[in-house]
What does this fold into?
Amino acid sequence: MNTSSTAGADRSSDAVASTDVEQAEREVRRVLAFQLGTTTRSELDDAAASLRGRVSALLGDPSAEEGKTHGGSADRGLLLETGCVPADEIAVVSNGAALHPDRHRTAGRTDPAKLRSLYEDGHTIRLGNLQRVVPFLADVSRSIQQETGYSNYLHAFVTPPGRQGLLHHWDQQMAVIVQITGSKRWQLWRPMFPSPMREYQESFRVWDPGFIPRWEAMGPDLEVDLRPGQSLLLPRGWVHNPHALDSEVRSIHLTFAIRERTPVWVAEKLVGGVIEKDAFRRVILPGDIGGHRLSQHVREVRQALVEHLAGLDVDDFAQSLHRAAVSEREYTT
Ligand SMILES: [Fe+2]
It folds into this structure.
């Protein structure tokens, strides 16, 4: 689980069968070998260290010595102090609850003075989709997609010392978390649902008020303390409950949310190709939208689809699929 540090990782390791841990470790190594263009832990650490300096500078962290080298004064404080992040990409959260956007906007725009005040009151500031507004992060995001075929996006979380932004939840994609400043404890539980995806089995849609008390009573399956420059691969669906550890230093981390391709994606692309065939674009009359007539249409379309798929040149299709994988961005990216 923890790809560049073992701090805290074995605290509750007896709660997870060693084979699970080994399997997770293998999966992490397999994924990271291409995801970040690294094959060894030290290379990954180097990449995280480089990002750390530049992101610290970008967020105006006065302790970011590396930022003086990598970020330059033009970047200093850009995101928090100038309000350059688009208003609809900012969320302000505390103990799991998000504030109304008017609390950090003025006339619909990002208001850095309000953000600062909310931060000083203990709220976590989430700066979303930084790959859209920060060129070097756009490069990182693009590189990940070119290497993996996975579209992705990244958020920064700035949490005041000792505070908590989001509570227990799980996400619909894997994440690589890079700790920039301060330290954060990640309590982790195995997935409630296997491979949640898009809106299917999204945590808030299938939420049960008994979840958190049950997890708390069980204790986490893993607990990982991330320190500056360290990173964590959080597999899709794993429940997490992060909070800033240090009572003196704020926590800044980046989350690279990486959408794994799945058979659903392949299936959608396969079916999507039928638009090129005239027969699939014909009108179905209003009188046929219901009853046995509609059932008959379904039968005919299913048959036509089976024939279409059976006639596909799979290798040609795979080539076009690869081109789409490395270039297309999904709805959130
Ligand atoms: Fe999350």
Remarks:
- The two ends are 25 Å apart (CA to CA).
- Confidence is low (pLDDT under 50) at residues 1-16, 32-40, 62-76.
- Residues 169, 171, 240 surround fe (ii) ion (CB under 6 Å).
